[in-house]
UniProtKB/TrEMBL annotation:
Its cofactor is Mn(2+); Mg(2+). Catalyzes the oxidation of 3-carboxy-2-hydroxy-4-methylpentanoate (3-isopropylmalate) to 3-carboxy-4-methyl-2-oxopentanoate. The product decarboxylates to 4-methyl-2 oxopentanoate. It catalyses: (2R,3S)-3-isopropylmalate + NAD(+) = 4-methyl-2-oxopentanoate + CO2 + NADH. NCBIfam families: PRK03437.1 (NF002898). It comes from Saccharothrix tamanrassetensis. This is 3-isopropylmalate dehydrogenase. One of its GO terms (molecular function) is 3-isopropylmalate dehydrogenase activity.
Length: 348
């Protein structure tokens, strides 16, 4: 950014969302240099709003959100709201309205992390998931609903334009990383129509990036390698649904859902990008202080990097790495204690 100011829209959302967002904002305040002016505007969206007014994402809110440099979101979803209402009406709506065609999800295993793959070779990959197409566009419907003859379709939408722009983004990402490798993940052997578009577009763009090595995996094989040889991956590009599933697996093998960060990005800058932890609203632990705010804090780092604050992003990631190295599984800390500890490291 030219001027040193950040206009940040904040959607705390439901369940543990507000709890983890509070710590993310605490860390953001601690890392920003004095001369950067931070303006935050909070939005009351999610289950409470829906119960009160029946609204998920009113037009005025969408317009107002658009006037920001970025959005920080906690989580959306509540057991008292019918499944899909908030997920489709708010989360997906935002991703589509702001054309967040890149869903960026880094997967990094810190040396001290506990989990199923603790002690494995260094895992450091990033998944570039397509964010605006595939089976998530709402292109489908049902007939004879609720009868034994019910018919349901959910059509996967893949456009040459949409596939090419996300593949290009992934090649640029790969080019900027030391290993310069890009893996396409799809299911071209069965989903032949969409698969052919993805594979042929990938091959055509690859010809422009001779310095990036490439390979291809079917999504089922990719799940095996995510567990048995995750260190083989550098950058992965894949469609919306495969990326959704793969990145939850990525979170599980790199320290758990409490650490997994993500960005819903519009690389052109035409709309604000939105950063959020991969996890949901975790109603089972909401209000208990057990939520790990680290995923949100790492999402704040992605947000800062996106806005050009590379040094501050790096400082947050270093603080998280240091905090993880000193964690004692026998002495769990509260959401607030973890946030305070991270903020204290950055204030020093
Ligand atoms: P979830 O991610 O909320 O919870 C799954 C499990 O992980 C739970 O046992 C939870 O306690 C644990 N967990 C999640 N975040 C954690 C954290 N920061 N620290 C420690 N443990 C954590 O997924 P679930 O239960 O499938 O969904 C709950 C609600 O969240 C649903 O309404 C769902 O639609 C919504 N959701 C929203 C997302 C979003 O806002 N982007 C993403 C995923 C789910
Ligand atoms: Mg998911």
């Amino acid at each position: 950014p030219n001027s040193r100011s950040i206009r940040l829209a904040v959607i705390p959302g439901d369940g543990i969302g507000p709890e983890v967002v509070a710590e993310g904002l605490k860390v953001l305040a601690a890392v920003l240099p004095q001369d950067v002016k931070l303006e935050t505007n909070e939005y009351d969206l999610g289950a409470r709003r829906w119960h009160a007014t029946g609204e998920t994402l009113p037009d005025e809110e969408l317009k107002s959100l658009k006037q920001h440099d970025a959005i920080l979101l906690g989580a959306i979803g509540d057991p008292t709201v019918p499944s899909g209402v908030l997920e489709r009406g708010l989360l997906l709506e935002l991703r589509f309205a702001f054309d967040h065609y890149v869903n960026l999800r880094p997967g990094k295993l810190h040396p001290s992390t506990v989990g199923p793959l603790a002690g494995s070779p260094a895992i450091d990959f990033v998944v570039v998931r397509e964010g605006t197409e595939g089976p998530y566009t709402g292109n489908g419907g049902s007939l004879r609903t609720g009868t034994p003859a019910e018919v349901a379709t959910e059509v996967s939408v893949n456009t040459a334009y949409g596939v090419e722009r996300v593949i290009r983004y992934a090649f640029e990402r790969a080019l900027a990383r030391p290993r310069r490798n890009l893996t396409l993940v799809h299911k071209t052997n069965v989903l032949v129509h969409a698969g052919n578009l993805w594979q042929s577009t990938f091959d055509a763009v690859a010809a422009e990036y001779p310095d990036v090595t490439t390979d291809y995996l079917h999504v089922d094989a990719a799940t095996i390698f995510f567990v048995t040889r995750p260190e083989r991956f550098d950058v992965i590009v894949t469609d919306n649904l495969f990326g959704d599933i793969l990145t939850d697996l990525a979170a599980a093998v790199t320290g758990g859902i409490g650490l997994a960060a993500s960005g819903n990005i519009n690389p052109t800058g035409a709309y604000p990008s939105m950063f959020e932890p991969v996890h949901g609203s975790a109603p089972d632990i909401a209000g208990t202080g057990k939520a790990d705010p680290t995923a949100t804090v790492l999402s704040v780092a992605l947000l800062l990097r996106h806005l050009g604050y590379e040094q501050e992003a790096g400082r947050i990631e270093a603080a998280v790495a240091a905090d993880l190295a000193e964690r004692d599984p026998a002495a769990p800390r509260s959401t607030e204690q973890i946030g305070d500890a991270l903020a204290a490291r950055l204030a020093g």
